[in-house]
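Deliverable D4.2, example record:
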Amino acid sequence: MQERIYDVVCADDRAITAEGRCESPVGNTVDEANATYLNNIGDAELRATWTDPDFDPALRAVYYARVLEIPTPTWQAHDAKYFGTTMPEQVPLSHQERAYTSPIWYTPKG
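Output generated by the structure prediction step:
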């Protein structure tokens, strides 16, 4: 089995490198101390058409799409702000949500 990740489209006019990855991560506007963020980065909608450059019709394959959101405060950050407490260092105060599609299976004819 092999796995390969391709970035198909990147928000904020970031380019895709020759290795098939966005040239840099999306920005981060999270203010962890106030449990807020600005929704002024990323894109509301992205579209792309992609063809697998390594496709071999003789081999089985599975594909899925993954979408990354911009970083947002965690519930722990909201609690810390609301209750006026300080979270331990190991508690994440921001995170980046992800969404995945169902798999798309390819099976060779034969």
